[in-house]
């Protein structure tokens, strides 16, 4: 069953209990990812993984612990950093930071939307930070704004300059605690979670796809890294469920791996799994300093062999691009699919 939820802008509600912002002393706070450095009296968050990126780590200096809890599904940590603003950590892995979240959110959203001729119905699996929802709302129908496309800089009417193309957005997120906390601690990302075009369902994404009879034009899988509740989102059966839930010419995009610098063999295997289900599969990458090695990979797939996923079907002029986006533009759309020679040879030129 799905769970409905309500919230206010200042507190987070879970059932009968109310959660307020925590006052946590860094000196007494204990977490596997937080390290104290006595030489300069600083506290640092470190993201490490012996499996995914052994021998290296990414660190951020911590100014303040904003919230820590363990939900039914995962460990959730939110802190204020010295240089990246507020940061969301799930199971020890950075999910988003105020400084650079827009890069990932824009690319994973606008690549499929701008590649589809008529994306009326969109499904988001995961995406509890609601950043993808924020980006999708930029393409809502004319009933939600004076001329269709939302401009993030207009807080009241959110009007843009292109005819609205999206009629409905369904988001299925397993952990409502993430959504509730993000509305409080990263509100710029989660501000459209209750938009009238958005149907928010608290449920398991895998289960939803197995049971739904709906078909979608675009499906965006905005899952966390492949462990814990997100692990099943990287298996062949999941790709089949995605394909079955797409309309003709539908497009799906999903996180694939941190980047080409890490576990390239695994990435190739993942692309091969997707290629067994979809007729047209491409890999693109996003540049983000808060992700390990500064990049994140995405797999884009469709059963339409004739569509060129690397080229947007709709474009904006430079002025409108600057109004709507911080990262995405038509040149970034195309160039995100361009790989360096060694990675292109390995992924597309046979075994090495």
SS class = alpha/beta
Strand proportion, as a percent range, falls in 25-35%
Low-confidence runs of at least 5 consecutive residues: 1-18, 142-161
Output the CATH topology of the largest domain. Rossmann fold
Helical amount: 10-25%
Instruction: Indicate the CATH architecture of the largest domain.
Output: 3-Layer(aba) Sandwich
Biggest sheet, in brief?
A: 7 strands, mixed
Fourth-tier CATH superfamily name of the largest domain: Vaccinia Virus protein VP39
Q: Rg from C-alpha positions?
A: 20 Å
- The average pLDDT is 86
Question: Class of the largest domain in CATH?
Answer: Alpha Beta
Index terms:
Spermidine Synthase, Chain: A, domain 2; 30% strand; 2 domains; alpha/beta; 10 helices; Rossmann fold; six-stranded antiparallel β-sheet; 15 strands; seven-stranded mixed β-sheet; 352 residues; 24% helix; disordered N terminus
């Amino acid at each position: 069953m799905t769970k409905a939820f309500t919230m206010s802008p200042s507190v987070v509600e879970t059932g009968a209990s109310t959660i307020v912002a925590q006052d946590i002393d860094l000196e007494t706070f204990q977490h596997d990812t937080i390290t104290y450095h006595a030489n300069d009296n600083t506290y640092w968050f470190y993201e490490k993984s012996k499996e995914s990126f052994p021998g290296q780590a990414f660190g951020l200096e911590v100014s303040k612990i904003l919230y820590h809890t363990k939900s039914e599904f995962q460990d959730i940590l939110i802190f204020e950093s010295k240089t990246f603003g507020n940061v969301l950590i799930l199971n020890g892995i950075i999910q988003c930071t105020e400084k650079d979240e827009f890069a990932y959110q824009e690319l994973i959203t606008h690549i499929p939307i701008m590649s589809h001729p008529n994306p009326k119905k969109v499904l988001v699996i995961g995406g509890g930070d609601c950043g993808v929802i924020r980006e999708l709302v930029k393409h809502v129908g004319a009933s939600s704004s004076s001329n269709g496309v939302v401009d993030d800089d207009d807080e009241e009417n959110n009007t843009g300059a292109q005819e609205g193309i999206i009629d409905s957005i369904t988001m299925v997120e397993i952990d409502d605690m993430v959504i509730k906390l993000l509305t409080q601690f990263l509100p710029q990302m989660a501000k459209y979670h209750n938009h009238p075009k958005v149907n928010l369902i608290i449920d398991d994404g895998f289960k939803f796809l197995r049971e739904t009879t709906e078909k979608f034009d675009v499906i965006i899988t905005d899952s966390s890294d492949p462990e814990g509740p997100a692990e099943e989102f990287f298996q062949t059966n999941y790709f089949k469920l995605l394909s079955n839930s797409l309309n003709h010419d539908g497009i799906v995009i999903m996180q694939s791996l941190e980047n080409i610098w890490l576990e390239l063999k695994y990435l190739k295997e993942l692309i091969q799994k997707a290629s067994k289900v979809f007729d047209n599969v491409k890999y693109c990458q996003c540049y983000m300093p808060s992700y390990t090695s500064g990049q994140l990979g995405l797999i884009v797939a469709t059963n339409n062999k004739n569509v060129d996923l690397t080229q947007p079907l709709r474009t904006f002029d430079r002025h409108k691009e600057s109004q709507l986006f911080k990262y995405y533009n038509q040149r970034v759309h195309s160039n995100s699919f361009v790989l360096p020679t060694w990675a292109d040879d390995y992924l597309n030129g046979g075994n090495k």
